[in-house]
Design brief:
GO cellular component, one term: membrane
Helix content: 40-55%
Number of strands: 0
Protein name: Sterol desaturase/sphingolipid hydroxylase, fatty acid hydroxylase superfamily
InterPro entries: Fatty_acid_hydroxylase, Sterol_Desaturase_Related
Shape: globular
Structural class: mainly alpha
Subcellular location: Membrane
Number of helices: 10
Strand content: under 5%
Pfam families: FA_hydroxylase
Largest sheet: none
């Protein structure tokens, strides 16, 4: 069976709706924290990520590759599928780790990524919640296009599916890992799991409003699919606990188009980072 774009995205969409339904039935969206503006951000962010910036990035990168490097098209199609999956997953996610880390280091990029952290609670919707600038410059998308161009198409699609499962579930309010930490015979397994991939516990800590509770790590736990990057580069924090406060500690809500469209749109609230 050959995987295709349409097959993979259908599966990812199904996964997204199943988990979002689980969040709904567990009472997440009944909170008064979810204002109309927050829902505008969620849906507009998903549209921006999947329908606008992703195709633009892919088409531009593919054009450059075909124009300047046609001789390398499918140059690595001989690589076994299993090896291709490992290669594409590691390269694509490694790129995203450093881009994500840079977004918490450089002010201009932080303003483009900030909307990802203004959500009042964890939810699957955070997976696509970023501004146009952050998404359009997203280097891992360029890396993805290069890998597909070089002949890793099938491997990339399969790897991307696994990445979506991990990334979406790590952002979700469904804490699938929490009960597993309490099962004694699973302790060695979970010790390996939480140091290998992103889990709700480690990624929720990244979205905490503060580090003061001893759980949150605002500038750390950057991994999306793999947590190994945080382990290797010293940005990991593992507590197996969940912060009570998610979002930004000093947050003054701006309109959805400001958060997603900065710097074309700026906040009129002088207290906001997006006002200048």
């Amino acid at each position: 069976m050959r995987f295709t774009d349409s097959f993979i995205y259908y599966e990812i969409l199904t996964l997204f709706f199943v988990i979002s339904a689980a969040e709904f039935f567990t009472g997440l969206y009944k909170s008064d924290k979810w204002s109309k503006n927050e829902w505008y951000i969620n849906f507009a962010g998903l549209f921006l990520s999947s329908t606008i910036t992703r195709p633009i990035s892919f088409l531009l990168s593919a054009y450059v590759l075909n124009y300047f490097f046609p001789q390398y098209y499918n140059a690595f199609e001989y690589v076994p599928l299993w090896a291709g999956i490992i290669i594409t997953c590691l390269l694509e996610d490694f790129t995203q780790y450093w881009w994500h880390r840079a977004a918490h280091t450089y002010t201009w990029l932080w303003k483009a990524h900030r909307v990802h952290h203004t959500a009042p609670e964890m939810s699957v919707f955070l997976a696509g919640r970023n501004s146009w600038l952050y998404l359009l410059l997203f280097p891992s998308r360029i890396v993805s296009t290069v890998l597909i161009f070089l002949g890793f198409g099938q491997a990339f699609l399969i790897g991307y599916f696994f990445k979506a499962i991990i990334g979406i579930s790590a952002h979700s309010s469904i804490k699938w890992d929490k009960p597993l930490y309490k099962i004694k015979w699973l302790h060695p397994v979970m010790w390996v799991v939480e140091r290998t991939i992103s889990t709700p516990a480690t990624h929720h800590a990244h979205h905490a409003a503060t580090d003061a509770d001893g759980i949150g790590v605002v500038n750390g736990n950057y991994g999306n699919m793999f947590f190994i990057w945080d382990m290797i580069f010293g940005t990991a924090k593992i507590t197996r606990e969940f912060s009570e406060h998610i979002g930004l500690e000093d947050y003054h809500e701006e309109p959805w188009f400001v958060q997603l469209g900065y710097p074309f749109f700026k906040s009129k609230d002088e207290r906001s980072e997006l006002s200048h």
